[in-house]
Amino acid sequence: MAGPVNRSLLARLGVAAGLLVSANASTQCLFDQFNEIVNPFAPGCGDVRFTYTENDSSGLNIALGYPPPLPVASLTAVDGFREYASLHMQHQALMIANPDEVAGTIVGQTLSGRDIWAYRIGDTADQLTVDGLPEPAVMVNTGTHAREWQTPEASTELFETLIETKADGGVGQYLAENLNVVILPVLNIDGFIQTQNFALSVTADPGQPRDGRMRRKNLRNPVSLGLIDADLATVGDNFWGVDLNRNSPIGFGLNNGSWGQGRETSLIFRSLSTVSEPEILALQNGATLGPADRLRMYTDIHAFTQIYFTPLTGNTRRDNITVALMNRMRVASPRIYRDGRDGPGEVGNQGIGTTADYFAYTFQIPSWTLETEPLNGAQDYGGTSTHGHSGFILPDDEVARMRDDVTNMLWLGFYRQAAPPRIQAVQISEAATGDIVYAASWVAAGGTDRTLSVTSNNALVPGGDYRLWLAFNKPMRWRNADGTIVRFRGQTVDGATGSARLELPTVAGEPTISIPINTASAWLDQPGGAPNGFLRYADDALVADFSIAADLDISGAVPAVLAIGNLDFAVAALDANPATAVDWSNGAWINYEDQFGVAGDIGGVDCTLQVFVAPNSTDPAPAESAVCAAAVVPPPSPPPPPSGGGGGSLGWLLGLLLMIGWSSAGNGPGNRR
Amino acid sequence: MPVTSSRTRVFPVLIGLFLSMTALAPLAALADDAKAARLQQLGDMVSNDRQPAARTWLLEVGSDPALTVNAREHLLYEGLLALGSLATPDDQTTQAVKELLGYQSESTTILTEGNHRLTVALHDVASAARLTLGNWRIQAARGEILGKIARGQAPLPAWSADQDENRHIAAGLEQALAGLSPAELRAWRMQISSAFDDEPRLARGVLLIARRLGDGYLYRQLAVRAPAAVVIDMLRDLEQSLDSAQSLVVLDLVRQREKLASAAILSIGRLQAGYPVARERLFALLADPQQGASAAGALARYGGLSDIQRLGGVILDEGAGTQRRRAVLALRLHASPAARAELGRLAADPRLSAKLRQEIAQWLAR
User: Fold this and answer.
1) Which of A400, A418, A436 is the last residue of a domain?
2) B293–A207: do the CB atoms touch at under 8 Å?
3) CB-based contacts of A238: which residues, under 8 Å, 6+ apart?
4) Nearest to A84 by CA among A130, A151, A132
5) Separation in Å, CA of B270 to nearest CA in chain A
6) Gap from B153 CA to chain A (nearest CA, Å)
7) Is residue B343 part of a domain?
8) I need a labelling partner for A380 at 20 to 30 A (CA). Which of A311, A516, B345, B360 fits?
9) What chain A residue is nearest to B35 in terms of C-alpha separation?
10) Cβ contact (<8 Å) for A89 and B259?
11) Closest Cα partner for A105 from A287, A340, A258?
């Protein structure tokens, strides 16, 4: 086992005007094999102060290759980082200007007595979905580590976007009306302000920079249990503080055993007891705004390395949902966000005391530490790098793009966790006259039940031309800035997705009529309801024309069923039985049925809409109902045919399920937070 | 920091040639003092402008079989930074460094302090080459500008088709201007200002002149034309160069730029303590749908106790409209017991809507 090594010697020597400045090798920071500085208070280690510059690497300067960002006083976003006071003013301004959508709460105080705010964004009045059910919730925490300035910017943009789009008639309004988003924008306020007060200065060692711009921990003095000072010149406390991402109860003290997290000067010092820090208590209080039992997703944003560090709790359904959701969100970024799920030997091992561990194990919800960009360091932006610490300092001119990128990923996750898609209403009308043949919608029937309220149920007739209007509970398609339906970044659903079939299973030959809903032009982005407008949100409804063959051989009224297969733009399939409202419990969906009526986490084909075909439009409905092909349990598989052929009647369903891209746990890279 | 080597990548021409000859040679760790000695050698070469020797140093480090990959890349990284101090690199030295732009540093798996296992380059040699070349470009641009001045030509740089090079050229211009006396700056001020009308890349140079000369015209020009990053930089200390009245004129111009308006209004806040016109501007802006929140923030942050009662008056003004909530915001953000007391008084005032009184009461209860 190696003894202490002087990893920083060359950097400490530095170069000034072409000359190397010699230094006493005994006065450098020394590291043990666990990356711990063993002489933090020795002269020449903790008292050394470096300065970040754009181009000057002489002496004690560290050149980034781009202008070192300075905090900006501005409520609204700039190409750069806002100072804490401005971020807080912006949050408060959004709260006060939008009392019907934002509820702000002081969930705790930092060690220095600063208020820690959390904001719940949604419809504050009733906390109910448009269905009248308790709203689900998601939570985002940022600013845990002081130096990671990217993260409050990302959550503030998320906050701003949720408000800007609250009445957009589309996805933003859907989220506002059906989801509570809890944002805790700056958890470690004291530390964050400390880093902003010393935006160009950092102490100790380029290989492990500490106080000033690179402070990670809060300002806890482990001796007095009070507050350390904010003065870099008083070296004795520069290494102190508690790592707020090691202070949560789940996995507390289990940071790979041999690491120095029990040492008070360690960068990952966990404190001596769990939830000892007021910031962590505030985070737990913030969860109650959801409220906690409605949470379905938690994201703790950090920097950097572009990865979702994702705890797997051993709850199989929860873990599968978590991985699938993570994979959907990862690819919603144009950058390379990596799969950081727990490795096989780490599943269910209680984590290492991170906030993501706490939410994963306590609430059994998808939860991760989302490390934002860069992947490697400043070199990703044309800057410099050694040991990658420059990655904590995103260039000003990359900030706006980063904010958009992170918001995009979260947006998709929120949309997916708000609710699986389901059919809400349907109308079939005669194409020529507009006369309504069939109309129905799902209505609340008490508790979590719904009933299908059928207001018209007349016969479809052979030779008839019809218009199907079909509405869902959420916007189903994504449009770009030009208003064109496109795939949400990284997803597979577009205008060509989806299938609708009118099936007549009691007629000889079991004829089916394909209804062309798989075109972008089918989706409705103008209001008005049936038959040509959306129901509540843009693209929550579609319209398609179809005909029944004149030579359809029926002698009386026969039952028919609409078999609807579709995916929302986050690639979630329909809840096939809207009669029971989907909810979330113990890490999994409840009442999320497939076409067989089996509840699970994937959904399936909706076969609940029963219509009928008859020789005459005035014929009464038949007594029996129809079962769609997708819902027929297949017999045991026969031996495979000698050669390939068509996909069969369920081929399209198989394709749909493949499109969902269901991912299971396992084969993880084994990263650890 | 535990380090394990992972995979080898393809090295570019310069280093690759030598490594291919030595790939099978046993690798040995090089002690810190040996590395320091080698860097000291290079430092001597740089300070004495012995460029052929410095190039040889680069080649030798790249081909030394005694060096581990990490030691080699560490030396190359630090060595390249040292070369950045050469005053006038010759073509061969420049080319040698350019070849290292393509160097792909060995990826190693490290445990970072967050206990992540990551595969990164410990010493990104190419990035050091990039920095050194950039510094040389800065020096070259600075020399070009000073040469023009010496010849009586306007100190306007020749821009490149490469935007990254232009960043360095602009920095060279700044460095050159920084060394001029106020009289010299005045001599060239109009030509640079005129050129800036069509060339935003001159903005940092213009800002330097504006600061040095306290030039209100140039500040106004920057307020209208400069890239956002330069304007943000300008706002940091505007009032140190201009008096309050001139500063407000500049800030009002910046305020017309939507993405910079909030920053401008917070800067107006800094003026308002000693300049009543600025305070009036902020109160007037409370009613602005886009800028009102920032005005409230400015009043809260920089306003005095005398503003509190006035804000209370705005809140009670029946015609206040959107101003009312902005004034409430200002009081909410005002870090004083007096503001809190005013909010308490308002929470009990029947002239306010029941909803707003309830909201205020809830804040006060937290």
Assistant:
1) A418
2) no
3) A40, A46, A203, A204, A210, A211, A232
4) A151
5) 11
6) 28
7) no
8) A311
9) A10
10) no
11) A287
Q: Which residue carries 């350019």 as its tokens?
A: B98
Of B123, B152, B187, the position where a domain reaches its end is B123
How many domains, chain A?
Answer: 2
Choose the closest CB to B74 out of A10, A19, A97. Answer: A10
Domain span at residue A501 reads 423-634+647-660
Distances (CA, A) of B45 to A19, A298, A544, B101: 9, 56, 78, 22
A22 chain-B contacts, CB cut-off 8 A: 40
**Chain B residues in contact with A11 (beta carbon < 8 A):** 78
Q: How many domains does one find in chain B?
A: 2
Chain A partners within 8 Å of B173 (Cβ) = none
Q: What is the CATH number of the domain that holds A347?
A: 3.40.630.10
Q: Using pLDDT thresholds of 50, 70 and 90, give the confidence band for residue A259.
A: low
Q: What is the mean pLDDT of residues A461-487?
A: 97
For the whole model, what pTM was predicted? 0.91
User: Which residues from B are below 8 Å from A673, CB to CB?
Assistant: 114-116
Complex ipTM: 0.89
Structural domain contains residue B106 = yes
How many other CB atoms sit within 10 Å of the CB of residue B212?
18
From A63, A38, A37, select the one nearest A50 (Cα to Cα): A63
Contact assignment for B131 to A9 by CB distance below 8 Å: no
In a domain, B196, yes or no: yes
CA distances from A152 to A87, A300, A302, B172 (A): 8, 11, 9, 34
The pLDDT of residue B331 is 96
The two tokens of residue B314 are: 């705005």
Residue type at A233? Answer: A
CB contact under 8 A, A75 and B294: yes
Q: Is the distance from CB of B91 to CB of B53 less than 8 angstroms?
A: no
Which positions in chain B touch A15 (Cβ < 8 Å)?
Answer: 43, 46, 78, 81-82, 84-85
Could you give the dihedral angle defined by the CA atoms of residues B264, A196, B307 and B267, in that order, rounded to the nearest 10 degrees? -20
Q: Which tens digit of pLDDT belongs to each residue from B11-59? A: 333 333 333 322 222 233 346 778 889 999 999 999 999 999 999 999 9
For residue B285, the distance in angstroms to the closest alpha carbon of chain A comes to: 15
Residue of chain B whose alpha carbon sits nearest to that of A54: B131
Name the closest residue on chain A to residue B111, using Cα atoms. A35
Supply the pLDDT for residue B178.
Answer: 97
- pLDDT at B114 > cutoff 80: no
Per-residue pLDDT tens digits for A58-68? 889 999 999 99
Band of residue A658 on the pLDDT scale cut at 50, 70, 90: low
Note whether residue A269 is domain-resident. no
Instruction: Specify the pairing of strand A61-63 against strand A49-53.
Output: parallel
Q: What is the pLDDT averaged over residues A426-445? A: 97
For chain B, the average pLDDT equals 88
Q: Which residue has the tokens 């207001």?
A: A455
- What are the C-alpha distances in Å from A325 to residues A332, A407, A415, A433, A664? 11, 15, 11, 45, 11
The single-letter code of the amino acid at A626 is A
Distance CA A43, CA B128 (A): 29
Which residue range forms the structural domain that includes residue B18? Answer: 3-123
In a domain, A76, yes or no: no
Task: Note whether B43 contacts A58, CB cutoff 8 Å.
Answer: no
B209/B199 Cα distance (integer angstroms): 16
Q: Under an 8 A CB cutoff, do A86 and B266 touch?
A: yes
Q: What is the mean pLDDT of chain A?
A: 90
CB contact under 8 A, A268 and B114: yes
Inter-chain CB proximity A93 and B297 less than 8 Å: yes
Residue in A33, A92, A386 closest to B124 by CB: A386
Is the same domain home to A305 and A377? yes
